[in-house]
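Write out this protein's structure.
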Amino acid sequence: MKYPKTRKDPSTEEFFGVKIADPYRWLEDDNSADTLAWVKEQQKVTEANLNEYPHRISMLKRLQELNDYPKQSCPIKRGDWYYYAKNDGLQNQWLTYRKKNKDAGEEELFFDPNSLSEDGTTTAHSVGSSKDRRYFAYQISRAGADAGEFWVMDTETKTFLPDKLLNMRHSGAAWYKDGYFYSRYDTQQDYQQQDIEQKIYYHKLGDSQEQDKLIYEDTEHPLRFNHPIVSDDQKTLFIIVSQGTSGNSVLYRPIDDEQAPFKCLFEGFEFSGYPTDAYEEGWVYLFTNKNAKNYRLMKVSLAEPAEDKWVEIIPEREYLMNRVNVVGNKLIAMFTRDVQTKIEVMDTNGNYLYPIEMPYQGTAECVYSEKEDEEAYFYFSSYIRPDESYHYNIPDNQLSFYHRDPVKAEVQDLVSEQVFFASKDGTKVPMTLVYRRGMEKNGNNPLFLYGYGGFNIPLMPSFNTNRMALLEKGVISVVVNLRGGSEYGENWHEQGMLLNKQTVFDDFIAAAEYLIAEGYTNPDKIAINGGSNGGLLVGACLTQRPELFKVAVPSMGVLDMLRYHKFTCGWGWMVEYGNPEEEQQFHNLLKYSPLHNIKPGVKYPATMVTTADHDDRVIPGHSFKFAATLQENADQDLPLLLYTQIQSAHGASSMTKGLELIADIYCFICKYLRLEL
């Protein structure tokens, strides 16, 4: 491969006596003319490579065919209306509809985000609604970026008010009376700079943003997130304070007394605790992992919030409690056991009443509006059955089928197989294999290995129409439930974070070795992929065990572990990864940082590093520097490509962008695994 020439600068930084060369630091400025020109030349090489695959166009067409069916979400009641989202097939953004009766009557179009931009890449998502459901607040974001604007929709006229808050990110809209509380950074920063000094303001409808009232700030701790929550009874303002992606504290005060000091409901930041209105005035439920790594539900008095006054409602189990839904004068508790959902209904004091039987083994999610509701909806999902939704009548404990999208995938011959393998330290780790019936363990099956492993995020069973495009070619699709996620509670998370982060990579490598040893595949038939923290996973594994994989696609990855904390909200990940400016953690990060473990003369897998030009979470500079370093050092004929999607962000900004990206990733994998249509 002949790659574009990449300038090297004499940039060096010293950490605790260790000098680290960073010759491609100039690529962190992805808006500079030099970087833009370099990215354009890199994309030309990538496009030329992908165009060599004879089925590139047909791959995209197949994904379009698989996704071209009408889709619909569950309805949710807001005031007198039931609102739900629909997509007729390939629309870039989902449309919001509503009707007065959830089961009958005429529907009307409420909001079509596709009208916000010509190319359909401007996204809109709800961030809150007024108590009377008259107003909905949306974040409107160009190219799907984290940063955007807050707009307010009048539900009676279906038009937006003049109110528009600019430079919004990492915030919701917590409504109170004729306005809402929200979080913001005062200064308009370059999107790459650290997000610091987040404050809480109150915006009254009709006022300009400059008139918004400052409610809370913490000048002594600029690297903290502060998020407001208004209680259901509109009497209490809570502030969730966090130093990163796990652990928090909770402050509160009477909402109508601006002179009252904020009191502490839950001390931070070693544990997590989240308040929800209880059915008893002056009390809240607190969902917490304090002294309960699998979580428990407590009840706390706002008058006496001291921990020795807490009342235990649902004690910790031997398996994870994901969440508790407070609805219909009941508690609906969602548990995870061996990567499957288990649902129980309890009274408001935590006494067990009955289970909700799932229609099949997989994942469930509960959807409802307010705790007074007497109805809810459940989504059920698995790897091999299209998603289904059910209506749940809470007083009668009646679960009835509501909707299933008419997917075009042929799923009747699919098999889902969960296996447990021993990782490097002997720990049993689960993974799920999905393949077509009749697959033989001949040691030569193409295999797509996917993982995440971090931030307490589990990979639960879910149906993915796009997966069919690989399964149809005889590929085995594998999802590994790595440590660092929450599949088995906080203990599972802790085993894959900070100084234990290498455990995540060991798990992923052990998964590949198990699949080879058991006769599913071989190293020339394995492709690996992951995004964001999963991009870090792929980057670390391809540099640590390059001979184990044939193809690697790190997507939007955190790849420079010595500088990740210097951009946007990256400092918030230090609770997960560690602080590069502390000596012990620096040495740990350096050991696995993908960028810093590329070695000269090594033959790496065929690699396509993917990113997007509007990614303001994991900045494209991570991918740029990693690709440039690979191209400089590797000794091989297999390609090391950079793929930069335009008008997209940390997630695809539209259906079109998403399918184009997936199609090209699949084409790259198929080309180098030598798969034909």
